[in-house]
TrEMBL record:
<keyword id="KW-0472">Membrane</keyword>
<dbReference type="GO" id="GO:0005507">
    <property type="term" value="F:copper ion binding"/>
</dbReference>
<comment type="similarity">
    <text>Belongs to the multicopper oxidase family.</text>
</comment>
<keyword id="KW-0560">Oxidoreductase</keyword>
<feature type="domain" description="Plastocyanin-like">
    <location>
        <begin position="413"/>
        <end position="520"/>
    </location>
</feature>
<dbReference type="Pfam" id="PF07732">
    <property type="entry name" value="Cu-oxidase_3"/>
</dbReference>
<dbReference type="InterPro" id="IPR011707">
    <property type="entry name" value="Cu-oxidase-like_N"/>
</dbReference>
<dbReference type="Pfam" id="PF07731">
    <property type="entry name" value="Cu-oxidase_2"/>
</dbReference>
<keyword id="KW-0479">Metal-binding</keyword>
<dbReference type="InterPro" id="IPR008972">
    <property type="entry name" value="Cupredoxin"/>
</dbReference>
<dbReference type="InterPro" id="IPR045087">
    <property type="entry name" value="Cu-oxidase_fam"/>
</dbReference>
<comment type="subunit">
    <text>Monomer.</text>
</comment>
<feature type="transmembrane region" description="Helical">
    <location>
        <begin position="12"/>
        <end position="31"/>
    </location>
</feature>
<dbReference type="InterPro" id="IPR006311">
    <property type="entry name" value="TAT_signal"/>
</dbReference>
<keyword id="KW-1133">Transmembrane helix</keyword>
<keyword id="KW-0812">Transmembrane</keyword>
<keyword id="KW-0946">Virion</keyword>
């Protein structure tokens, strides 16, 4: 039986941290059913009428494949709200960026060119690669001019363009790439710097799962808009001359327009057969619980780290920021003409729905979901050589450190999200696992945090609030940690030696220093 961090420890580390509800005006922590929900994040209200739901077709991202891929980060205008133009900060000027299609064992070199006026970092979320290609938050790519509007944390900077090398030596999975620049991940991703990377292999291709136009990637991203249809992000300095968000949004930014692949509440026409739907929560801070109306089920076939061993039928699926869920929906359970709405039962008002499917035709079934999907090499608790504790909390009273304050010279910081009472510091390791070792990491928190660990693929062993959730199935790189909860994960640290990070994937928390180094030695 695991020993969990006590509530007293959660509420008190390092000389004064958050007590639940103490962040004035930021809301409450609640739990709905088995899924913890962080209601501390605050809504940014749009300044224009919200668009009609289920009125625009679902866009499909552009596709890129091959061993050499070039992406240009640039500003562009895109029709997101019908009849209006929004400036996006995108890979190839698109939001989402192009989907990278790759095959296991075939390395991909992605050359990224920065034609912006801000520094960027590209991280392949869920990928396993050498640390110099992982997207460490201070390994910044500067524009060709070498000048940016913000004072950035010192690191291994490159000017103009750089290449990231991804070995793709891992299980087939739905990955995604996004900006990871220290202090500015939140606004950069919100503005559009994100896209899919879909990795396949021979094992997956032999299963007979839906493919081609019936294999659909779906990026969920809530956004709000100004009166002139621009993204409305509550930055302290919209020109990024300093990092941070307005005080009301310290716990996260919520939008009131539901975007799927960059379109508001889209509709997608389907035939009456199996469709593979790859869900990604690309939001800064919003959680989703997805259900089908007027009824129906999802067949979960995969998680962050690839296929499950066996398919699992779900009445709902839950996604915290950064998580992916690979599902199949059998649309033969609906008649031609049916409208199937994907509802978000964690949302209210306009955010209580995500998108709609319109069943338009009968079709021959040429795909299947086999009873056995894959084999996972499970780790046992007794395989672990050590257990480490990591406590995620908000520290009041200021201090000196990196993260949200370092870009301003490491001065006084009134509030910081911390791990083990310490804000992010590029010079410190929170853990040094030995190459090949298996370790148990126990995450604990007062508030809710989606915890993302680079390099490692984790198994969820236990939760203090009860058994592992359905969303914990399979291999994970992001684990949704509920309020007043501890969660144990187990992972083997191999593949590469070097320095990586773990952090909260609520992007406002990440930007305000809730990040920690670990070095595989």
């Amino acid at each position: 039986m695991a020993t969990h961090v006590s509530r007293r420890q959660l509420l008190r580390i390092g000389g004064g941290v958050v007590v639940a509800g103490a962040a004035a005006g930021l809301g409450l922590l609640t739990a709905r059913g088995s899924q913890a929900t962080n209601q501390l994040a605050a809504l940014v209200p749009s300044e224009l009428p919200l668009p009609a739901r289920f009125a625009v077709p679902l866009p499909r991202p552009a596709q890129r494949s091959g061993g050499e891929i070039s992406l240009v980060q640039r500003y562009a205008e895109q029709e997101i709200l019908p009849g209006r133009r929004t400036r996006v900060t995108g890979y190839d000027g698109m939001f989402p960026g192009p989907t990278i299609r790759a095959r296991r064992g075939a390395p991909v070199r992605v050359r990224v060119q920065n034609d912006l006026d801000i520094g960027t970092v590209m991280h392949l979320h869920g990928g396993r690669m050498a640390p110099e290609h992982d997207g460490y938050p201070t390994d910044v790519l500067l524009p060709h001019s070498g000048r940016v509007r913000a004072s950035l944390m010192p690191g291994n900077t490159t000017i103009g363009a750089r290449s990231y090398v991804y070995p793709m030596d891992q299980r087939a999975a739905t990955l995604w790439y996004h900006d990871h620049a220290m202090d500015f991940t939140g606004p950069n991703v919100y503005a559009g710097l994100a896209g899919f990377c879909i990795l396949t292999d021979a094992e997956e291709e032999a299963l007979g799962l839906p493919s081609g136009q019936r294999d659909v990637e779906l990026m969920l991203a809530d956004r709000s808009f100004t009166s002139d249809a621009q993204f409305k992000y509550p930055a302290l300095a919209p020109d990024q001359s300093v990092p941070g968000v307005e005080p009301l949004y310290l716990a996260g930014v919520l939008g009131d327009v539901m975007l799927v692949n960059g379109a508001p509440w889209p509709v997608h026409e389907v035939s009456r057969n199996l469709h593979r739907l790859r869900w990604l929560n690309g939001s800064n801070a919003r959680n989703y619980r997805l259900e089908l109306a007027p009824g129906g089920t999802f067949i979960q076939i995969g998680s962050d780290g690839g296929l499950l061993e066996k398919p699992a039928t779900r009445n709902s699926i839950v996604l915290s920021p950064g998580e992916r869920m690979d599902t199949v929906v059998d649309f033969s359970q609906y008649p031609v003409g049916a409208l199937v709405t994907v509802r978000n039962t964690l949302g209210a008002g306009p955010m209580d729905a995500v998108m709609q499917f319109r069943v338009v035709r009968d079709a021959h079934e040429d795909a299947r979901v086999p009873d056995t999907l894959s084999e996972i090499q499970w780790l046992r608790r007794e395989d672990a050589v050590r257990t480490r504790d990591f406590i995620f909390a908000l520290q009041f009273g200021g201090g000196h450190g990196h993260g949200a304050g370092q870009a301003r010279g490491g001065g006084f910081i009134p509030h910081q999200w911390t791990i083990n009472g310490r804000p992010f510091d590029t010079e410190t390791d929170w853990a040094t696992p030995k190459y090949g070792d298996v370790e148990i990491w126990r995450f604990s928190a007062v508030a809710a945090h989606p915890v993302h660990v680079h390099l490692a693929h984790m198994q969820v062993l236990s939760r203090s609030s009860g058994p592992p959730r359905p969303s914990d199935a399979g291999l994970k790189d992001t684990v949704d940690l509920g309020p007043m909860e501890s969660c144990e994960v187990i992972a083997r640290f191999d593949g590469f030696r070097g320095r990586y990070v773990m952090h909260c994937h609520n992007l406002e928390h990440e930007d305000m220093a809730m990040m920690a180094n670990f070095t595989v030695v």
